[in-house]
Design a protein that fits this description.
The protein is α+β, with helices and mostly antiparallel strands. Among the domains are: 1-91 and 163-196 and 209-250 and 303-357, no CATH class; 459-615, Heat Shock Protein 90, CATH 3.30.565. The chain has helices at residues 5-58, 72-86, 123-128, 220-229, 235-240, 306-355, 369-419, 426-453, 466-475, 478-483, 503-519, 583-593, and strands at residues 115-117, 212-214, 259-263, 268-270, 280-287, 290-298, 462-465, 486-491, 498-501, 525-533, 537-545, 597-602, 606-615.
Length: 619
């Protein structure tokens, strides 16, 4: 099945839009990915610099960073502190609902204060002052005092922490400026002194190096964790819940699991190795102007993080936008194709009407410039075909009339002789001969026109003199001009004009023009024939006196069998073949066969003027 022009145009427009959309979408996706990656890289490098600042603050106690070797709790504590520093830039999540309180074990429903292990930096304070005792109901039980343990060196005291506003959230509150967890106390192994004390033995008892304390003594950022992890009810419930659960997991996209710390010899101390192929950025850790280690961060956003979700969301929106664009382009392509092809369908309908012989179809030019010009040409073609059809019908009618006239005369004369009404005298026979010659000339003229229309007018090229051709042609009409009371004037060159023409047909052309002027010029009148020569060709001018031709009829004089109205319709006595309407048409055919030009105009003498230009030797 062959597609129509509208379908092909619609598919072409759709293909162009689809290719442009895909190309634009690809460029936008690549630009979005590269720009977002650049943004993530800049942001991650900034976060890495903040994390390095946390590490550098803790490195003041041990610049070798060996306290991080095989100490995941220390690494986690650094990440937690870094997360706390970021809390000022993140919106606080709503406080989750606390679970319902557990019924009290004793007869009283009032729960004693919940105690929790004290941080190592609080142990010196606990050694110098008595610890608060829980007051059980109904009779309080004394709480044993912890034994003080000597410390090898004084530890920096943490600054007072502000109480959290609005209750604990899912993440710790940001600590006060200047607060930092100290390195592990001397004498403790790797992993001790960070995050929580070592697991106490069962049943719970005193553990050297720490003492139970109230929840309010914990750092402000961990109060919420204890509130969430320990059920209120009694001190026994808090004791049974020991060891407490690990801190809540880090949010997606945090540095946990993506950051590594190396010593100055590039030996990894903490952090998991990045997956192969992932991009890693590394910055130096400095202390007092010297590089003491390196921190590396995997730049690949974690699955499920806000960054990866944002990028997927943008890709999805871009895909939807491209899809909607393609759908709109499809609808627009169909509408544009239909509107563009509508004038062509009108041209097609008009052409079909002309093929059926109806040349009255007229189109209103519209659409693009080329299509409007095509519609105007179709209108002109229809008018031309209609004119030619009318000329053909008129020509057939006129030819039939011209042939019927001599045939009718011959038929009447022969019937008169056959019936005995007239005798076959020499005068009658001469009249019959004249009609036969007229009929022969008419048939020959029609044959010449037919050959000219088919482009098969045969010419025999010979060398000759153009001036001599004019003299010979005019000599044949001298007696006829004298009989009609007309003067035939020749204006010729004295020297010969060498040409290479079909001399017989050029003489026929001149004879037709002179005979036409003699036939339609009033007496006394003048018929002038002039011959001019140039280096390139020869020019003939045949003009006569009144009457003339209307200017609007000049362009129709060369139509076969065309006759003008008025004075030029009259035939003059002795003008053989006058009034047939084929002389000028045959003259034009002969001139075209010699690659010349013929034109009709009004003569200054008052009649008609014919200008003929012929090359000396046609190519």
């Amino acid at each position: 099945m062959r597609l129509g022009l509208a379908q092909q145009l619609a598919l072409l427009l759709l293909a162009a839009v689809l290719a442009s959309t895909l190309g634009l979408g690809t460029v936008m996706a690549i630009s979005l990915r590269n720009g977002f990656n650049d943004y993530l890289r800049a942001r991650e490098e900034q976060e890495l610099d903040r994390f390095i600042g946390v590490v550098e603050r803790h490195a003041a106690q041990d610049p070798s960073l060996q306290w991080l070797d095989h100490a995941p709790e220390a690494m986690r504590q650094l990440v937690d502190e870094h997360e706390l520093l970021l809390q000022g830039d993140r919106p606080r999540a709503p406080r989750p609902e606390l679970p319902a309180p557990r019924p009290a074990a004793g007869p009283s429903s009032v729960a004693p204060p919940v105690t929790a292990p004290a941080w190592p930096q609080q142990q010196q304070q606990q050694q110098q002052q008595p610890q608060p005792q829980p007051q059980p109901q109904p009779q309080p039980q004394p709480q044993p005092q912890p034994q003080p343990q000597p410390q090898p060196q004084p530890q920096p005291q943490p600054q007072p922490q502000p109480q959290p506003q609005g209750g604990p959230g899912p993440w710790p509150e940001r600590p006060a400026p200047g607060w930092r967890p100290p390195p592990p106390p001397p004498g403790q192994g790797p992993g001790q002194g960070w995050g929580r004390p070592p697991h106490p033995p069962h049943p719970p008892g005193q553990q050297p190096g720490w003492a139970p304390g109230p929840v309010s003594s914990l750092p402000a950022g961990l109060v919420g964790w204890v509130d969430l992890l320990v059920q209120p009810g009694s001190a026994q419930a808090a004791t049974e819940a020991w060891p407490p659960p690990r801190p809540l997991p880090h949010p997606p996209g945090s540095m946990a699991g993506r950051v590594q710390i190396f010593d100055k010899n590039h030996r990894r101390l903490a952090g998991a190795a990045p997956p192969p192929g992932d991009e890693v950025v590394t910055h130096a850790i400095q202390w007092q102007g010297q590089v003491i280690g390196y921190a590396s961060l995997n730049l690949r956003p974690a699955e499920g993080s806000a960054d990866s979700a944002f990028l997927r969301q943008q890709y999805g929106r871009l895909g939807w936008a491209l899809g909607v664009t393609v759908l709109l382009a499809m609808a627009a392509a169909v509408l544009i194709a239909r509107g563009w092809s509508a004038p062509l369908r009108a041209v097609q309908a008009a052409a079909r009407r002309m093929a059926r012989g109806d040349f009255s179809a007229q189109l209103q030019p519209r659409g693009a410039t080329e299509i409007a010009a095509l519609m105007a040409d179709m209108n002109l073609m229809g008018q031309t075909l209609a004119s030619q059809e009318n000329a053909r019908r008129t020509w057939i009618a006129q030819v039939s009339h011209e042939l019927r006239t001599p045939l009718s005369v011959l038929q009447g004369e022969l019937e008169s002789i056959e019936d005995g009404a007239r005798q076959a005298t020499p005068e009658v026979l001469a009249s019959l001969r004249e009609e036969v010659l007229k009929l022969g000339r008419l048939v020959n003229d029609l044959h010449t026109l037919a050959l000219s229309d088919m482009g098969e007018l045969h010419c025999v090229w010979r060398d000759g003199d153009a001036a001599e051709l004019v003299r010979r042609s005019a000599r044949r009409f001298e007696s006829q001009a004298a009989r009609q009371g007309l003067r035939l004037e020749l204006l010729l060159l004295d020297e010969p004009v060498a040409v290479r023409w079909d001399l017989g047909r050029i003489e026929q052309m001149l004879s037709n023009l002179i005979d036409n002027s003699l036939s339609y010029t009033d007496a006394p009148g003048l018929v002038r024939v002039r011959c001019e020569a140039s280096a390139l060709g020869v020019r003939f001018v045949v003009e006569d006196s009144a009457p003339g031709v209307a200017a609007e009829q000049l362009h129709r004089l060369f139509e076969p069998l065309f006759r003008t109205e008025g004075a030029r319709l009259r035939q003059r006595p002795g003008s053989a073949g006058a009034g047939s309407g084929l002389g000028l048409a045959i003259a034009q055919a002969i001139v075209k066969a010699h690659q010349g030009r013929i034109a009709a105009s009004l003569s200054p003498l008052g009649g008609l003027r014919m200008d003929i230009e012929l090359p000396r030797q046609p190519a």
